[in-house]
Amino acid sequence: MKRSDGFAPQVILCLLALAVACAPPADTLLIREVLVADGTGAPLVPAAVRIDGDRIADDTHSHHAGDLPDDPAAVGAVSQGITTIVSGPDGGSRLPLSALFEELQATPVAVNVASFTGHGTLRRAVLGDDYRRPATEAEVDSMASLLRADLDAGSLGLSTGLEYDPGIYATTEEIIALARVAAGAGGRYASHMRSEDRALFDAVEELIRIGREAGIPVMATHLKLAMKSLWGGADELLARLDQARAEGVDVTADVYPYEYWQSTMTVLFPDRKYTPEAATFALEELAPPDGMIIGRYSPDTTYQGKTLAEVAGLRSEDPVTTYLALIEAVHGPEAPDDAQESIVARSMLAEDVATLLAWDHTNVCTDGELHGPHPRGFGSFTRVLARHVREEGTLSLEEAIHKMTGLSARHVGIARRGVIEPGAYADLVLFDPTTVADRATFEAPHEPSVGIRAVWVNGVQVWDGSAPTGARPGRVVRRVDQAPGATAAPIS
């Protein structure tokens, strides 16, 4: 599964392939002479898998969905083995969600799509531009009504982006009230927590409190320790999460395998006060000037792809002065309404990423886009298989695949996907474990992976090993479809 600013995660059902053969009738495919990783974490077994129609992998936090109208083949997703993406992360989603689902049914895409409902989207819809304050009881009730409608349409639950406007201004009580609505419908809660650096452990306590008081499974999305003074603290963080689980809170996480994140320039200022002192702290402790890459910058597109250190050099300024000036040009009172910016920044320690990824209750995500500046949109899943499995051995192949498939599906509440078993949907990936690898880099973030031989979505091949097939068999995956005996609504 995967996550991103548009569409989100996907479940990858994996086959480690030697050969593929077709058998009659025409809607039946026999995949034989393979080692099967069934998505449960069980040992690999030699087997053959027969696909009959659409039956017999997923990304829990993705922004791929936003690019699907322009890229229905979803190359960045399927080329790394993603078959289902979960959209609506970080508190942002389509509203109403039924409109997105109707569009996907009318205009097919190559992957399955599920979605959370974004708290930030609800907040903007109800509070408008007057969002820099706690919501009133009546306003929370209005947000709850919109959330119920989305849940009735098939939303997986509630997502928050508590480091971003407008979610940053919400009280914990507001989130708990809405999380209870999601829990009442059998939904889940996924959160870009209130802090991933200065107040990380306070943010974790808030997440745990929401899970406990709302009675809802909670997920810390793209979990990280994004501050130098926190580096090496992954074991302490996981110990607190394990303690919460022992106390009855169903807390989980997803992680992408990079030390760089992607967000806005303003996210490093939690009080939204852009002072030289705050900027100095951000550049010394959170994201160094030579590790902050300008992804998008509409006031001067020549800055895109350069580091903050390089841009400061071009302007003959120190990095703090440049950083504040770049923010002012996009977010200041004189900035045009359509001004845009984003950055990719190095804030994590590789050893912490590996430790978080290895936690029993962590699944793999991408947090990536189909057309974004971060290589995670094209390389997250294959990077795990190449680096963490084959090169470093911190995960077994079976463990890694489980974290990409069955565990991902369980964490977001998707049934009959993510495992290879009779009756499950035929979302399958055929790959060579000796060669599979990511190729996307910060210089070339849209390079497809290698070693992925074929990908099937609902029994239809969408990737032939080097290019999309042109097929669009993806389906909308709704929460209400998860009841026993229910069937998912097809996109086409």
Could you explain the architecture of this structure?
By secondary structure, this protein is an alpha/beta fold. The chain is 31% helix and 18% strand. The chain has helices spanning 75-78, 97-106, 119-127, 137-153, 172-184, 200-214, 234-246, 276-286, 308-315, 319-331, 350-358, 376-391, 397-404, 406-412, and strands spanning 13-16, 21-22, 28-37, 45-52, 58-59, 84-87, 112-115, 117-118, 157-161, 188-192, 218-220, 251-255, 260-263, 292-297, 341-346, 362-364, 428-431, 452-457, 460-463. It is globular and about 65 Å long. Mean pLDDT is 90; it is low at 1-13, 16-25 and 481-492.
Helices and strands, with pairings:
Blueprint: E1 13-16, E2 21-22, E3 28-37, E4 45-52, E5 58-59, H1 75-78, E6 84-87, H2 97-106, E7 112-115, E8 117-118, H3 119-127, H4 137-153, E9 157-161, H5 172-184, E10 188-192, H6 200-214, E11 218-220, H7 234-246, E12 251-255, E13 260-263, H8 276-286, E14 292-297, H9 308-315, H10 319-331, E15 341-346, H11 350-358, E16 362-364, H12 376-391, H13 397-404, H14 406-412, E17 428-431, E18 452-457, E19 460-463
Parallel strand pairs: 1-17, 5-6, 6-7, 8-9, 9-10, 10-11, 11-12, 12-16
Antiparallel strand pairs: 1-3, 2-3, 3-4, 13-15, 14-15, 17-18, 18-19
Helix pairs in contact: 3-4, 4-5, 5-6, 8-10, 9-10, 12-13, 13-14
Structural class: alpha/beta
Q: What's the main sheet like?
A: 7 strands, mixed
Count of discrete alpha- or pi-helical segments spanning 4 or more residues: 14
Q: What fraction of the residues are assigned to beta strands by DSSP?
A: 15-25%
Distance between the termini: 22 Å
Radius of gyration: 22 Å
Mean pLDDT: 90
Helix content estimate: 25-40%
Question: Would you count the extended β strands for me?
Answer: 19
What gross morphology would you assign? globular
- Spans of at least 5 consecutive residues whose pLDDT stays below 50 are 1-13, 16-25, 481-492
